[in-house]
Write a structure and sequence with these properties.
Blueprint: H1 2-22, E1 26-29, E2 33-35, E3 40-45, E4 54-59, E5 71-74, E6 81-85, E7 91-98, E8 105-114, E9 121-124, E10 128-130, E11 135-140, E12 149-154, E13 166-169, E14 176-180, E15 186-193, E16 200-209, E17 216-219, E18 223-225, E19 230-235, E20 245-250, E21 262-265, E22 272-276, E23 282-289, E24 296-305, E25 311-315, E26 326-329, E27 335-338, E28 346-350, E29 354-355, E30 359-360, E31 363-370, E32 375-380, E33 404-410, E34 413-420, H2 421-425, E35 431-433, E36 442-446, E37 464-469, H3 470-477, E38 483-491, E39 494-502
Parallel strand pairs: 2-8, 10-16, 18-24, 34-36
Antiparallel strand pairs: 1-3, 3-6, 4-5, 4-7, 7-8, 9-11, 11-14, 12-13, 12-15, 15-16, 17-19, 19-22, 20-21, 20-23, 23-24, 25-39, 26-31, 27-28, 28-39, 29-30, 31-38, 32-37, 32-39, 33-34, 33-38, 35-36
Length: 504
C-alpha cells in the first residue's frame, strides 16, 4: 500500500512538473518603445492566479529589491490578463512578474521610453511634380518605431484612413527618404505619424501639375574644374524681381541660410541663367526658391573636381614662326626674334604702325578653331635688345599700345573680344558696341597686364603673363551667352611668346 502511494505521488509530481514547464510564465509589453506621453500596457500569461501575484516596473538591470520599484500592481488573481501603468520618464526598463507577494522573479521583459522630438521634419524634394514623376519625401527626427509611417493625402483632408492615397512605414528609421509612385494632377500633402497612429506629427504640401508648368534648373555641365564658374540655367521661374533666387549648397545639406555657398537673384526672368563663382573640390546642389523664401522648388546636383589642365601651343617662337600667321594689314610681316624670348630661344615681334598717334594700321591673324580650350595665354615682353623697324634708334626694346583679341562663336552669334591696356590707363571699364541693326558685336576689356614697353617708363626687360578666361570674360558683358568655339586670334602688335589656349 505504501509502495502504491509512493508511485502515485511520484507520478503526480512528474505530471505536475511537466505541466509547470509547459505553462511557463510569459510577460510582455505591447510595445518595445514608448514616448513619455504613453501609458505602458503589460500582458501576462500563466500566472499562478494568487490574489497577491504582482507585476512591477524596474530600471533595467537593477535588483528585485523593493527600493528599485518604479511602479507596481496586483494581478487581482488573474492567470492571463493585462495591467496598464501610468507613463514613466525617459529610460530603459523591465517589467517583472512575481508570485504570492514574493521577490522570486518568474518572468521579465525589457522596453524603452524615449523623449518626444518636437522637431519632426517632412519635406518633398520639390514643391511641384509633373504627372510622370515619382514623389521623394525626406524625413528627420521620426520616433524610430517600426510602425512610424508617412502617407500622402489630398490637401486639406482629414487624417482618416479612407483619405490615404499612398503610404509607407519608415522601417524604424529616424531620418531617411521614401519614394512614392506618380500621382495625377492635384494638390496634396505628405503627413508623418508615429507608431501606427493617426496623430499628425508633421506635414508638407506639394502639387502635381502639367509638365509645361514645372520649374527646371540645370547646371551647364555636371562636372566643373576648380577654376570654372558655376552656370545654372532655369526655366519657369515666377519672374519676380528680387524675389526668385538660386543658390549653391553642399550636397544633402539642410536648407537653412548658413549652408549657402553662392547665390543670386534671377532678376525677374522666367527663363535664363545665372553665373555664380568658383567652388573648391566637392559635391554640390543648385537649388531654386521663390518669393525670398526657403521653400525648395527645384534642385540639381553637380560636382567640382581638380582636373589636370592641358594646352595647345599655337606659337612659341622655337625653330621659326608658325606658318599659319595671316598678315592682314601694315608694312611689316611677323618677325622671328632668335635667341631671345621668355625662358626660350625664340619669340615673335609684331610691329605696331601708328598714324598721328590715333590709328594703328597693323593687323595680324592666327587661326585657332578650338571648341574645348577657352583660356587664352601668352607671355608679353620683354625683348629689351630688339629694335622695332619703324621706331627711332634710341627706342630699342620699346613697344607701343596694341590690342590682343579673339573672334569666338557663341550661342548668340559671332563676338569679337579685345583687350587693351590703354583702357586701364583711362580707367575705362569693359563695354560693348554693335551696329545699329545689332550685328558686328565687339566686346572691349581692360587688359590683365601692361602691353606697353619703354614708354611711360615701363621696364623694357619686363615679361608678364597674359591670361584671360574667355568664357568668364564673355559673361561680364553678356551673362546669358556661352562660348561654343574660339575661332582665331588677332593682334595689332606686341613682343610675344608661348601663345596658347588652355583648359585650366
Amino acid at each position: 500500500m505504501k509502495l502504491k502511494n509512493i508511485l502515485i505521488t511520484t507520478l503526480l509530481f512528474i505530471l505536475l512538473g511537466t505541466k509547470l514547464y509547459a505553462n511557463e510564465v510569459s510577460i510582455k509589453t505591447d510595445n518595445l518603445t514608448y514616448t513619455t506621453e504613453e501609458n505602458i500596457t503589460v500582458h501576462a500569461t500563466n500566472m499562478l492566479g494568487d490574489s497577491e501575484d504582482w507585476i512591477a516596473i524596474y530600471p533595467k538591470g537593477s535588483s528585485n529589491d523593493w527600493a528599485n520599484v518604479i511602479a507596481w500592481n496586483w494581478t487581482d488573481g488573474f492567470i492571463n490578463g493585462s495591467i496598464t501603468f501610468e507613463r514613466v520618464p525617459v529610460g530603459e526598463y523591465e517589467v517583472r512578474a512575481f508570485f504570492k507577494n514574493s521577490y522570486n522573479l518568474e518572468a521579465k521583459y525589457a522596453f524603452s521610453v524615449l523623449g518626444l522630438d518636437s522637431n519632426v521634419s517632412l519635406q518633398t524634394d520639390k514643391n511641384k511634380y509633373s504627372v510622370n514623376e515619382k514623389i521623394s519625401v525626406n524625413f528627420e527626427h521620426m520616433f524610430g518605431d517600426s510602425e512610424d509611417w508617412i502617407g500622402i493625402y489630398p490637401k486639406g483632408s482629414s487624417n482618416d484612413w479612407g483619405n490615404v492615397i499612398d503610404w509607407e512605414f519608415t522601417e524604424g528609421l529616424k531620418n531617411g527618404q521614401i519614394t512614392f509612385d506618380e500621382l495625377p494632377l492635384g494638390e496634396y500633402e505628405v503627413r508623418a505619424f508615429f507608431k501606427n497612429s493617426y496623430t499628425l506629427e508633421a506635414n508638407s504640401s506639394f502639387s502635381v501639375v502639367d509638365s509645361d508648368d514645372i520649374l527646371s534648373i540645370v547646371t551647364d555641365k555636371d562636372e566643373y574644374n576648380v577654376s570654372e564658374n558655376i552656370v545654372v540655367n532655369f526655366e519657369h521661374m515666377k519672374g519676380e524681381i528680387n524675389k526668385d533666387w538660386i543658390a549653391i549648397y553642399p550636397k544633402d545639406s539642410d536648407i537653412d541660410g548658413s549652408n549657402i555657398l553662392l547665390w543670386a537673384y534671377t532678376d525677374g526672368s522666367v527663363n535664363g541663367s545665372v553665373t555664380l563663382g568658383k567652388l573648391p573640390i566637392g559635391e554640390y546642389e543648385a537649388r531654386a526658391f521663390f518669393n525670398n523664401s526657403y521653400n525648395l522648388e527645384a534642385t540639381y546636383p553637380f560636382e567640382v573636381k581638380h582636373k589636370e589642365g592641358n594646352s595647345t601651343i599655337y606659337e612659341d617662337g622655337e625653330n621659326g614662326l608658325s606658318p599659319n600667321w595671316i598678315h592682314q594689314m601694315g608694312d611689316y610681316p611677323p618677325i622671328h626674334v632668335d635667341n631671345d624670348g621668355f625662358n626660350s630661344n625664340g619669340a615673335l615681334a609684331l610691329v605696331t604702325q601708328w598714324v598721328h598717334n590715333t590709328t594703328n594700321l597693323a593687323l595680324y591673324y592666327l587661326p585657332l578653331h578650338n571648341t574645348t580650350q577657352k583660356i587664352l595665354e601668352m607671355d608679353i615682353g620683354g625683348l629689351s635688345n630688339f629694335h622695332i623697324p619703324n621706331k627711332p634708334a634710341n627706342q630699342v626694346g620699346y613697344m607701343s599700345h596694341f590690342v590682343i583679341g579673339v573672334a569666338v562663336h557663341t550661342t548668340d552669334g559671332t563676338r569679337r573680344m579685345a583687350w587693351d591696356s590703354f583702357l586701364n590707363h583711362q580707367n575705362v571699364s569693359a563695354y560693348r558696341t554693335t551696329n545699329e541693326d545689332g550685328s558686328n558685336v565687339w566686346l572691349y576689356y581692360p587688359s590683365p597686364v601692361e602691353h606697353v614697353r619703354g614708354f611711360f617708363g615701363v621696364d623694357i626687360h619686363l615679361w608678364e603673363h597674359f591670361r584671360v578666361d574667355i568664357e568668364e570674360q564673355l559673361k561680364i558683358l553678356e551673362p546669358n551667352n556661352k562660348v561654343i568655339s574660339v575661332d582665331y586670334l588677332f593682334l595689332t602688335g606686341g613682343f610675344l611668346d608661348n601663345i596658347k589656349l588652355s583648359s585650366n
